[in-house]
Amino acid sequence: MKKHVSAIVYGGLDGIITTFAVVAGSVGGNVSNIVIIILGFSNLLADGFSMGAGAYLSATSDNNQSKSKALAAGIATFISFNVFGLIPLGAYLITNALIHDKAIAFPIAFVIVGVSLALLGWVKTNLSEQKVRTEILRTLSVGYVAAIVAYGVGILLNYYL
Questions:
Q1: Model confidence at 1, in pLDDT bands (50, 70, 90)?
Q2: Rounded to two decimals, what is the model's pTM?
Q3: First-residue to last-residue Cα distance in the chain
Q4: H/E stretch holding 131
Q5: What is the gyration radius of the CA atoms in the chain, in angstroms?
């Protein structure tokens, strides 16, 4: 597992961030839950595939990598992207289904996403021997900034369009 730490962290971080950014931008843009579900799952699978394929292609450009190692890196990235990416999408959809109010469901999902980002930061420290606090704060910061940007873009586009 340690040999795939980069693919796991990269895929997982991008899975959480881009999937929650789609949710955040959609909520900010005040679109329907059907649209959020369609965009969320489309992003999850297509971006996960793109990330996995990109990891494979990148690894095959390294002359020191065998094709089987490159394939393993691509698969690890794809799986990590989808496993971690399901967390923010699922958190929002389940919370919203229970509460039926985006204004309450979204902040709850925001907190759940924070927990998943912190978990990914912790996983990274256990696999790479980095400092726990530093990695968790870094991971939280990157994820939350991306979500806030997406939410703001959704609000602006909803207002001006």
A1: low
A2: 0.89
A3: 47
A4: none
A5: 16
How far is Cα 158 from Cα 51, in angstroms, rounded to an integer?
Answer: 29
**CB 91 within 8 Å of CB 104:** no
* Residues 23-54 pLDDT 10s: 999 999 999 999 999 999 999 999 999 999 99
- pLDDT score, position 128: 73
**Residue recorded with tokens 């990148």:** 58
Tokens 């890196």 -> residue: 73
The encoded tokens of residue 108 equal: 């709850």
d(CA 117, CA 156): 26
* DSSP secondary structure of 4-55: GHHHHHHHHHHHHHHHHHHHHHHHHTT--HHHHHHHHHHHHHHHHHHHHHHH
Contact 109, 92 (CB under 8 A): yes
CB 123 within 8 A of CB 2: no
